[in-house]
Amino acid sequence: MKKNITVIKGDGIGPEIVTEAMKVLDKVGAKYGHEFSFHEILAGGCAIDACGKCLPEQSLDACLTGDSVLLGAVGGPKWDGVDKNNRPERALLGIRSAMGLYANLRPAKLFSQLRAASPLNPEIVARGIDFVVVRELIGGVYFGAHDTVEENGEKRATDIMVYSEHEIERIARTAFETARKRRGKVTSVDKANVLDTSRLWREVVTRVSREYPDVAYSDMLVDNTAMQIVKDPSQFDVIVTENMFGDILSDEASMITGSIGMIPSSSLGETKNGMYEPIHGSAPDIAGQNLANPIGTILSGAMMLKYSFDLDEESAEIERAVSAVLDAGYRTADIMDEGGRRVSCSEMGDLICSEIG
Ligand code: NAI
Ligand code: MG
User: What pTM does this model have?
Assistant: First the structure.
């Protein structure tokens, strides 16, 4: 298989972690006979420095015409002063909306080797944490009308939550398809006891669920879900929910795994061309020191193989290699524990590559 991957190394630790992910993808490609070619483009702060624009046109074109996008992170204090419409983060919003990436997938997976990093009770952790939050990304209250008015000397603000059937239907399909590639269970999260958007959400997801008789489906109210994620996360496989609930629940979900440097994410749309990135930012405090944990980015590469290229076996091979390197005790600074063997960002990438070799 031949694929063109658009690469945005970005700012801060971005170049360091993406370089390691590219090494790992090359290694998997060589092992399984695929050719991944990387097309590096500028977006974010580095693009502002180079040409004054956070998202140059040719960069966006490259994202739209390639087979998938791999991103490190963008932004940093250096660009705090730039115009708000040209901030580094705007580049990501621009790419997400131009590519129509309506589904954000964030796995919450605790590697058993890093159990001690979870803030949860060890008995709960022992049951395992391995689920994905599928968050609707371009609708809901974040995209409805916003307004602040002043009446009788008092300000009043409004944010409107809007969902239409087709928006719910397509994200529901993403969730059921994702569950088919996992343990076959979808929990749809809403606030149907209060909100009309949630009642429609539940109606549409229930309808879509009938097309997936092989997937177990249930609903849960969002407040209860927030409790269940800390009480018994092992009950979840795929959680699907609207934009704001997903924003909050996906942060809660990554927190219980204890390590920001380990978690990948993907943003998907109507086509196979998606965007893959670690959940953390550009970590300016450790940039340029070969200290960063590249695993979140490397696992983002694994998600790319699975969701954009349907290379399930190759994707699992990366996950297996990461797990084996952790088994052997190797740790970057952020996940260092008693008895761990401290390695740099590039050494971690090398170790994962040799495990695949
Ligand atoms: P951050 O995620 O960059 O860093 C938070 C803390 O976690 C720091 O102490 C950092 O050193 C550590 N950390 C993050 N990733 C790590 C890794 N891979 N290995 C080891 N340690 C790691 O969040 P922060 O500091 O709030 O934001 C820094 C910049 O990144 C800001 O300009 C922010 O706007 C931007 N940002 C960009 C994102 C993106 O490109 N998708 C997402 C979040 C923030
Ligand atoms: Mg958030």
Answer: 0.92
Q: How far is the CA of 73 from the centre of ligand 1 (A)?
A: 8
Residue type (1 letter), 279:
I
User: Topology of domain 1-101+261-357, per CATH?
Assistant: Isopropylmalate Dehydrogenase (3.40.718)
192 Cβ partners below 8 Å, 6+ apart?
198, 199, 201, 202, 219, 221
Q: Assess whether 251 carries a catalytic annotation.
A: yes
| Residue 147, Cβ density class (10 Å: 0-12 exposed, 13-18 middle, ≥19 buried) | exposed
With a cut of 50, which residues of the chain have pLDDT below it?
none
In this structure, the residue with its CA closest to atom 30 of ligand 1 is 281
130 lines ligand 1 (CB under 6 A): no
The Cα–Cα gap between 110 and 258 comes to 8
CATH topology for 119-256 is Isopropylmalate Dehydrogenase (3.40.718)
14 lines ligand 1 (CB under 6 A): no
What is the model's pLDDT at position 357?
Answer: 86
pLDDT at site 157: 96
| DSSP calls for 130-141 | EEEEEEE-S-GG
Measure Cα distances from 142 to 86, 102, 158, 266 in Å: 20, 13, 12, 19
For the chain, how big is the Rg over CA atoms in Å?
Answer: 20
Element (H, E) at 181: none
Domain extents in the chain? 1-101+261-357, 119-256
Contact between 287 and 303 (Cβ < 8 Å) = no
From the CB of 75, is ligand 1 less than 6 Å away? yes
Q: Which two tokens stand for residue 13?
A: 């630790």
Q: Please tell me if the domain spanning 1-101+261-357 has the same topology as the one spanning 119-256.
A: yes
Determine whether the annotation assigns residue 30 to a binding site: no
190 is catalytic: no
Q: Is 289 annotated as a binding residue?
A: yes
**Degrees to nearest 5, angle at CA 339 with 338 and 345:** 90
What pLDDT score was predicted for residue 84? Answer: 87
Q: For residues 256 and 118, is the Cβ–Cβ distance under 8 A?
A: yes
